[in-house]
Amino acid sequence: MSSEKPTNNNDSIIKPELLGGFRDLLPAEALMTQKVVDTIRKVYESFGFVPLETPGMENRKVLLGNTDNFNKSIFLARIVRGIEDKKIANDSWDQDYTLRFDLTVPLARVIAAYPDLPKPFKRYQIGKVWRGERPQAGRYREFSQFDFDIIGSNSILADIEVIQVMYQSMKALGIDNFLIRFNTRKILNGLAEAVNCLDNSKELFRIIDKLDKIGLTGVKSELMRQPANEYDDTALAMTENKAEKVIAFLQIKSESSDDVLVKLQDFFGDSDDLGQSGLYELQKISKALTDLNIPQKNWKIDLSVARGLDYYTGPVFETTLTDIPEIGSVFSGGRFDGLTNRFIAGSNIAGVGASVGIDRLIVALQKLGLIDKRDSVTDVLVTIFDPELQKYSMDMVQELQQNGYNTELYLGDDYTFRAQFSYAAKKSIPFVVIIGPEEMASGKIQLKDMNARKQELLTKEECFANLKSSLGK
């Protein structure tokens, strides 16, 4: 008798699990994503934006600059050639391969690397990005961004066009109740100057950005907070008078943009150059949106919009959905002049654009009932009555496809009608065509409407007319 132990086949079985913070998009989710992307892409292209693709992996210095001191959690990668490189794989990371954490820095590299690109350069890009942040509900380490940007234009018309694109994208998706809120870094710089806080403006803007979460009382408390210790350099320690001035600024609100502009003029007076520069930008944008007949219900000046102001240099935009504000911003962006300074010293190339949150937007569209969840793109399933009649079924598939209908031939091993109808139901295929001996003899076909649960014996012409009426094709 052999002394060898039997092999445990389970030892070679690998559990089909995902890494934390990553996810699969099964057909239903992938199809919804595709539909939203295609809809928005058409809007982008209607304004003349062209596609751009960049590698998912970049040189570390391209993404992070010449420093190892950065505050982003990133993914590094390296090349390993099997078990002989095990020691190398365990050594310190000395390679330059880094997964991108956004699409903007790669865009800057492209602009610097290809100076002959016509300016203004208008591009859109959709792609995966990776961030090594702690996974939590709704936040992943790998997710898609869908950006559009105008590079090389200092004109306020470019900022206005960004708002137009955001507006048209929301309308194309069937959303009517949304609000594009905008502000400008220059107005907030004027506020910082007015309260002698220009040197600590980043912290001031961070506190203002928390307004929705902590309210005016919380903002005032944060502004006046004293340092906790000698190392606490985030405390602004404002006097009550200065904190009250910030609160007065944040209370400048009105449904009328003209009222907001008048109140801003009163707040800054005639001597504040930074504030006046920002006021001019808001006036130009407001007038243009009015002239373009974009409804006032879909846009407003909101002085509390302070997102990313350590990054943006001019107007900033945020889009929220009026019916479900808890979703948060679904489309945001702003002006970011100086895009290529990392690559070309002093180039100061202007840029403005926005990014749509695809995942968040899909959740919103589902809640609003504006997008269907389907597991299939198929319009019609053609059944196989038995193998001897499969030629006729294949001919029917071809004819339906030639007439513009996404059509599947049933490819399962179980030819029972129960199995074939079950397949159609599971994939949400709306119509099933049946061709059996009786249909062959009469020159007709059976068309089953899976949603209405109705089956009819029709001529081919009647079948196509029915499909055209039901599917709009």
UniProtKB/TrEMBL annotation:
Give the principal location in a single coarse category.
cytoplasm
Q: EC number(s) in its UniProt entry? A: 6.1.1.21
GO BP term, pick one: histidyl-tRNA aminoacylation
Designated name of the protein: Histidine--tRNA ligase
Family to which this protein belongs = Belongs to the class-II aminoacyl-tRNA synthetase family.
**Species, as recorded:** Candidatus Buchananbacteria bacterium CG10_big_fil_rev_8_21_14_0_10_33_19
HAMAP family in the record: His_tRNA_synth (MF_00127)
Residue spans crossing the bilayer: none
* Keyword Isomerase on entry: no
Q: State the source organism's domain of life.
A: Bacteria
- Subunit composition and interactions: Homodimer.
Q: Where in the cell is it found?
A: Cytoplasm
Domain Aminoacyl-transfer RNA synthetases class-II family profile span(s) in chain numbering: 21-387
A GO cellular component term found in this entry reads: cytoplasm
Please name the PANTHER family in this protein's record: HISTIDINE--TRNA LIGASE, HISTIDYL-TRNA SYNTHETASE
Q: Where does L-histidine bind?
A: 102-104, 131, 145, 149, 307, 311-312
* Pfam families linked: HGTP_anticodon, tRNA-synt_His
Q: Which GO terms describe its molecular function?
A: ATP binding; histidine-tRNA ligase activity
* Catalysis: reaction(s): tRNA(His) + L-histidine + ATP = L-histidyl-tRNA(His) + AMP + diphosphate + H(+)
The protein's UniProt keywords, in alphabetical order, are: Aminoacyl-tRNA synthetase, ATP-binding, Cytoplasm, Ligase, Nucleotide-binding, Protein biosynthesis
What CDD domains does the annotation carry?
HisRS-like_core (cd00773), HisRS_anticodon (cd00859)
